[in-house]
From TrEMBL, chain A:
Keywords for this protein: ATP-binding, Ligase, Lyase, Nucleotide-binding
Domain of life: Bacteria
Residue span, Citrate lyase ligase C-terminal domain: 158-339
Pfam family, one: Acetyltransf_10
The enzyme's E.C. designation: 6.2.1.22
InterPro entries xref list: Acyl_CoA_acyltransferase, Citrate_lyase_ligase, Citrate_lyase_ligase_C, GNAT_dom, Rossmann-like_a/b/a_fold
Protein name: [Citrate [pro-3S]-lyase] ligase
SMART domains: Citrate_ly_lig
Recorded catalytic activity of this chain's protein: holo-[citrate lyase ACP] + acetate + ATP = acetyl-[citrate lyase ACP] + AMP + diphosphate
TrEMBL record, chain B:
The protein, known as: Citrate lyase subunit gamma (Acyl carrier protein)
Pfam families named among the record's database cross-references: ACP
Molecular function as annotated in GO: lyase activity
Keyword set includes Secreted: no
Coiled coil: none
Main location: cytoplasm
Native source species: Desulfosporosinus hippei DSM 8344
């Protein structure tokens, strides 16, 4: 029995402490994810002769977080129903607020949804494999309302695209132009998660500048609900297989269920994906999921140059190989100009030093 | 009294309440209550919170309350602390 449970922080840099948490999680079929930045535990407090003073009492409950996502949550079977979950989650919320994060998610198994709903978390969406819940000072509906006012999104019907634009290419521009030609209004969501070689602010600015000639296009930050580390961690971890499938389904459903219905989005455009297996699988999932919410998916063949599709990854590999001269046929003027700024040159240098797929 | 930042007070433990406050403009007072005893005590909780907000002369605030069966004076104390932290 644990009385007045004490929550302690785990030093993740200490291999011994880390292993202790990993061993505990393994009992529940869980692993300590690589992106975890904070972990806390509750230890058994019953004085037991088998533990010397030096040795710590065993862990009976743990919870971690990666940025604004709570994860790796486990409580010893015999201690369930003792309010441990509330104690742990409170400790994590304290930590989040200290970091200035006032809105957060829980990624969990669908059978755990009840525990978190009881702690004030609201379910955004769940499928057979995963459930995503949120809590904090706002929720997805408030977020959508705010977007509506900020970007003056009226009631007319429209199309949408979600793009990373790492960096913005002639291919992206072509795709947006196609959509703009066919619809009265087009929303372009730029992936806000800053895990790409080109920072979000630069990507957003390039797309805004490069679509200035299209008055019916609105360029909007994607926020936390579209391809973010909360809705779609696999996209950034480049995971494949079952987990990717579950995450992609979740992301696509959130887009259909919330974004398309509040913004009257009838069609989402994507470019055919010739290279990246993760994006390819994501497109396939969109094709299956969006029609459930009455939304059509239009896959447009990539604009080619010299018989090869134009893509941001092709641009990055050219930059990596130092063949900048060939870029003139792949990039719009705004991006070419940006590459020539000091920030642009800094990014190119970074690309040449890393092998990141993004 | 003007709310300038996001702050919180309280916990999710039984018999406590977690209060989160954030700035709102145009003198709005926005209140969102979730409680395990909403049906029985929802109105009382609302009154206690709004009374404290008025007493402290706060204007322009959004309050989110997640109640786990706190008593009136606990609620008042948590609201007061959260608001003081948010000035």
């Amino acid at each position: 029995m644990v009385y007045a449970a004490q929550v302690t922080k785990v030093n993740l840099k200490d291999i011994g402490e880390r292993e202790e948490v990993e061993t505990f999680l393994r009992e529940f079929g869980l692993i300590l994810d690589g992106d975890v930045d904070y972990t806390c535990v509750i230890r058994d407090e019953e004085p037991s002769p088998q533990f010397s003073l030096k040795q710590r009492a065993p862990i009976v409950a743990t919870c971690s977080k990666a940025k604004n996502v709570l994860k790796c949550f486990a409580i010893a079977h015999d201690l369930r129903g003792e309010g441990m979950a509330a104690t742990l989650v409170t400790a994590l919320i304290d930590r989040l607020f200290r970091e200035g994060i006032h809105h957060y998610f829980v990624y969990t198994n669908p059978c755990q949804v009840k525990i978190f709903s009881a702690l004030g978390f609201k379910l955004i969406h769940q499928n057979q494999a995963v459930a995503l819940l949120e809590n904090g000072i706002y929720d997805i509906r408030q977020h959508l309302e705010e977007l509506k006012t900020t970007y003056d999104i009226g009631t007319a019907e429209r199309a949408a695209l979600v793009m990373n634009c790492n960096p913005f290419t002639l291919g992206h521009q072509f795709l947006i132009e196609e959509a703009a030609h066919n619809h009265r209004e087009v929303l372009v969501f730029i992936v806000e998660e800053d895990r790409s070689l080109f920072p979000f602010a630069a990507r957003l600015a390039l797309v805004a500048e490069g679509t200035k000639h299209l008055p019916n296009v609105k360029v909007i930050p994607s926020g936390e609900y579209i391809i973010s580390s909360a809705t779609f961690p696999a996209y950034f971890l480049r995971e494949e297989g079952e987990r990717l499938q579950a995450y992609a389904e979740l992301d696509a459903s959130i887009f259909g269920k919330y974004f398309c219905s509040s913004f009257q989005i009838l069609k989402r455009y994507v470019g055919e994906e010739p290279y990246c297996p993760v994006t390819k699988a994501y497109n396939e999932t969109l094709k299956k999921v969006l029609p459930i919410y009455g939304v059509e998916l239009e896959e447009i063949p990539r604009k080619p140059f010299a018989d090869e599709p134009i893509s941001a990854s092709r641009v990055r590999s050219l930059l990596r190989e130092g063949e900048a001269a060939n870029l003139i046929n792949l990039l719009p003027e705004v991006t070419l100009k940006f590459l020539d700024t000091s920030l642009g040159r800094e990014i190119v240098e970074k690309i040449q030093q890393t092998h990141s797929p993004h | 009294m003007k709310i300038t930042k996001v702050a919180k007070a309280g916990t999710l433990e039984s018999n406590d309440i977690l209060i989160m406050v954030s700035p709102k403009d145009r003198g709005i007072i926005e209140l969102d209550i979730e409680s395990i005893v909403m049906q029985q005590f929802g109105e009382v909780i609302e009154q206690v919170i709004l009374h404290k907000v008025q007493e402290m002369g706060v204007e322009g605030v959004s309050i989110k309350a997640q109640d786990r069966g706190a008593l009136d004076y606990t609620i008042a104390a948590r609201v007061e602390t959260a608001l003081n932290r948010a000035i």
